[in-house]
Amino acid sequence: MCLLGMDVSNPEPDFVGFSIEVKSPGSPGFIPLRNRLAFSYPATTAPSTIDSKQFPSLEAPFQKFRWVHFPQNPQPGTYSYRVTKQHMPKDGVLKPGDSATTNISLDPHIYEGFLDVGFTRGYASSQAFTEKFGNTPKFFPPLTPAGGGAGPTFDKTTAPAGAYQWLGFEAYDLIFGILKDVATDSTLTLDAFAYDLDEPDIIADLANIGKRLRIIIDNSGNHAPATSGPSQAAKTLTKAKATVQRMHFTSKGLQHNKVLIVKRNGTAVKVLCGSTNFSFNGLYLQSNNALVFEGQDAAGLFDQYFTAAWTKPKTFPTSDLATKWHLIQPKGAPAVQFCLAPHGNPDLSLNPVAAAIDQASSSVFFAIAFLAQIKTTDTVRAAVDRLTDKPVFSYGISDKSTGLSVKKPDGTVGLVKWDYLKTKTAQPFAAEFSSGSGIHEHNKFVVTDFNLPTAKVFTGSSNLSGSGEKGNGDHLIVIEDSRVATSYAIQAVLIFDHLHFAANMNAAKKPTQLLLEKPVAISKAKATWFARYYEQNSQLARDRQLFSH
Questions:
Q1: Cβ neighbours of residue 100 under 8 Å, at least 6 residues apart?
Q2: Fewer beta carbons below 10 Å: N end or C end of the chain?
Q3: 3-state class (DSSP) for residue 288
Q4: Contacts of residue 429, Cβ cutoff 8 Å, sequence gap at least 6
Q5: Could you report the per-residue pLDDT of 474-505, keeping only the tens digit for each?
Q6: At what angle do helices 347-359 and 379-387 cross, to 10 degrees?
Q7: 267-274 and 289-294: which strand pairing?
Q8: Given strand 15-23, what is the order of strands in its sheet?
Q9: What is the value of pTM for the model shown?
């Protein structure tokens, strides 16, 4: 996927948006991207059956200054995009204006041979999911916030073909890719940390690895009973001759890592980490991310971490592994640092995150699960709260907004919580499936100054709270690289826009139809659709300028 940013210095009153065309690798020519909205809809078409693919942007331009494109059938290589200003004179007929073309590489690996990043879709409650699979799906087990016992025995064959892989998206491919590689290569072994573990195909693949698997599975709280998903998984894996250990690091903490460490002939060569739990929630319902590092440096660090957790978890918080950051920078790759928890002083890991937020000069994006539950005096939470009054551009996502500042001083929204379209839908949108009452925004990442040489992204399994860093087995990663930061920034924009739209719809008076806006000369409206993007020092003006310059 990629984000296109557009700008117009002095938009004319008859400016009605941008058409976007794409030429994919190997294709003979440009085809237009399509818009769900149009200037009008067929009178005989019901809102729930409108085909969102029927409005090419040459006829229904995008009234936004940025757009994210997901190729329908992604191909590695360079994509050409042609963006054209569209005007509507008084006769109501579109007239193309200035045009610009740019090339963007969409190769699947961020750094071949070193780093790959993948995201889940987090779109079970979305128009795309509803159109593909309906809004009353029967292919999720009865889910609880954590530790649900129905997952390991759930029959996934009741789902439409490809549904789970579509929801799990890139993270699904990364996780199952590693499991398949190890299962089919006898020279490989796997060490794994698991927190939530109830996805039956993951459990089956781990069982296929058998005696070449060592796994540490959390046994805190509702993961402890024999009926929980992790307990059932542990029983299955023990029967398959894997070596299983149940533990959590401290009396009040969790074994919260979600990590796969691949070894070849005893040497760690690859590691998967991040926020994605090996569960139905983690892969299919929540917004999450996963990272795969290749090479002995990063994999070896997690190998040491696993060994310490396996043999001496009680002394780990004071060990050399836990009390400093670990720098890794292979030749030609960006600088990456890892901080492993638990450790006695949470400032070790959290102060760099807060400092990056405070020092950002361009932008800050964050997606922090449980943000509303973090103490206001906590290091990262306090830095996030300070963002509200800062002039830098910022967007944030959290599952709940209780106690969080949602509105910025200019009245625009800087933080959104999870929501979905329920009863207040308008043509051409339909009611969506509710993916339950648990945590949906499960990412834990902060991106600062993604478009500058000083770009940083902080991510991992850490909840970015002081109590978590002191009590939980977790990892926090900082990557100093604009390419990686841009990937996370685009993901933040996607989630923010998705949730912001749902929240606006649910808060509005019941509309009947959403349409593209025509020029004021035709519509007789008080202002053009784009006027708010040019209000000086506003969030929308910064949005327009940030992504297009």
A1: 82, 83
A2: C
A3: coil
A4: 36, 47, 127, 421, 505, 514
A5: 999 999 999 999 999 999 999 999 999 999 88
A6: 10
A7: antiparallel
A8: 31-32, 15-23, 78-87, 95-105
A9: 0.95
